[in-house]
Sequence to fold (357 residues):
Amino acid sequence: MKTFNIATIPADGIGPEVIEAGVAVLDALAARDGGYAFNFRTYDWGSDYYKAHCKMMPEDGLEQLKGHDAIFFGAVGAPDVPDHITLWGLRLPICQGFDQYANVRPTRILPGISPPLRDRGPGDLDWVIVRENSEGEYAGHGGRAHRGLPEEVATETAIFTRVGVARIMRHAFSLAQSRPRRMLTVVTKSNAQRHGMVMWDEIAAEVAAEFPDVTWDMMLVNAMTVRMTLNPASLDTIVATNLHADILSDLAGALAGSLGVAPTANIDPERRFPSMFEPIHGSAFDITGKGIANPVATFWTACQMLEHLGEVVPAQRLMKAVEDVCAAGILTPDVGGTATTREVTEAVIETIRGSNH
Ligand code: IPM
Ligand code: MG
Fold:
């Protein structure tokens, strides 16, 4: 029997609630399927750990995570710890330290969920956003001088390397190639950002030559927001820089009905290190402890994790169960329902137990 060693980092806010739900669903899936199992190991890192130890994770945190097959991550962020500390103390060191350079964010309108756009439903919006996850505007380069004085200065430098851009383009083109429509939109801002973004466009054209069967086009990021809103069916796979894709993926989540269902995978495509799977929604302190967090994003990212681990059929079975439960109207309040986290989780587990395909 195959055993997958998974590190869970539930961390802050609703993170522990949704990760608990995700673990229950994955265990139920493995019990139904047989042939594989999960060995979860929980790490208590996050903002409470920070308050006790003045750091978000131990010095040798990456060392401890290294031997796992994947990382299942909840959310970071606390009202009483600055966001740049929680982000740069835990999530970014894992993404950057493990060179998880491809951030993959699928978006679809799930059945039973009403999106904010008039007359749209499942099938009108089926995208995967590929976010460059190792450099760009999140490279952390820059500094501040003359703090607090009138002449204070701050720089925030975006870094684009040929290696970094070429590898994310290749990942995006090959993902586009694997999808039925074989379409890729390269997002850019090369009219205003005339160095890094112009190189980005040039490398996109070079890599495109390796994928003659992929239809591709380029969009300025501002125009992209309009196209996503007014002509969603014209898009399929999308690749963008770290910051541009951060912004566009929030828009994508909103257009699909809720950030509560949006998943993300931080992937090291070369598999030198464990990849990390998480819901996009964040710690959501306003609903923490109320038992109404939407576990669907976590279930969806669990599907991404299963696919990454090579368990493609179980991933499809889990996604189908989630869609059936959504279609049956068993939804949390963020997507217009009245169900609790536990009710949605139990419904998905029941559906898995009853499924025979
Ligand atoms: C995301 C989030 C993060 C980001 C936040 C929490 C810093 O918005 O995963 O998209 O900007 O990357
Ligand atoms: Mg974001």
Summary: Residues 15-33 form the longest helix (19 residues).
